[in-house]
Amino acid sequence: MKHIDEKKSDYSFICDECSYDVPDFEFRLSAVQYGIIFLHGPNDVFMGILCPKCQKMSLNRYDTEYIKGLKSRLFYSTQSDALFKYHSFPYTHDYHESLLDNLFTSKIAIGFDIGCIEESEIFARDDDSKTHFSNKYCSYSWGDEAIGPMLNVCWADEDKIESLVKIENETGLKVFPRYIGYVPTYLLINIFCEDYNYFDKELIANNLSESFQVLEEYPTQREISRDSDFLNILINSMQDKNVIKKISTKENKIVIDEMKEKFITFYKKGYLKHFLEKSYLEFLHEYIGINQQINFSYQVVNDLLSKYLKILINLVKEKETERPMQKIREECRKIAKRLWKKYPKMTIQDMIFRDEIAHACGQKLYTEDTIRNWIKDLCPNRLPGRRPQK
Ligand SMILES: [Zn+2]
Question: What is the C-alpha separation between 264 and 279, in angstroms, rounded?
Answer without folding.
Answer: 18
